[in-house]
Amino acid sequence: MLSALTQLLLFQLAGEVIARGLALPIPGPVLGMLFLFVALVIKGGPDKELQGTGLTLLQHLSLLFVPAGTGIMVHLHRVADEWLPLLLSLLISTLATLVVTALVMKLCQRTPATGEAS
């Protein structure tokens, strides 16, 4: 488990260093995740240890939201001051996500050609 966590953190570090070094508008952890994905595609998938570590992290994913919740509580006065833009951005982004997901799903569905019998 330790080597898998080290691997995950090294990819995150690499993404962070590149994002900051090149002043990219993409967060470092996102770049690190992209690097990890490319490495896993080249390697042919994760090994058993990385799979087990990933599943363990996913089982405890709710704990990773504790710092975000704490930050919200610390800055609750700012949330109260900016509630309308926050609410609108949440609603619009949720609606946009639903629409894009529905369109992609519709495009990915296999429909029989008009001349084929059902």
When the domains are counted, the total is 2
Strand content: under 5%
Question: Considering DSSP H and I runs of 4 or more, what fraction of the residues is helical?
Answer: over 70%
Based on Cα principal axes, name the global outline.
extended
Largest sheet: none
What is the CA-based Rg, rounded?
Answer: 20 Å
State mean pLDDT (0 to 100 scale): 89
Please report the distance between the alpha carbons of the first and last residues: 51 Å
Order of helices and strands: HHHHHH
Unreliable runs, pLDDT <50, ≥5 residues? none
Structural class: mainly alpha
Q: In total, how many beta strands? A: 0
Secondary structure layout plus pairing:
Elements: H1 2-21, H2 28-43, H3 48-59, H4 66-74, H5 76-81, H6 83-108
Helix pairs in contact: 1-2
Descriptive account of the structure:
The protein has two domains: 59 residues; 45 residues. The protein contains six helices and no strands. The longest helix is centred in the last third of the chain and has 26 residues.
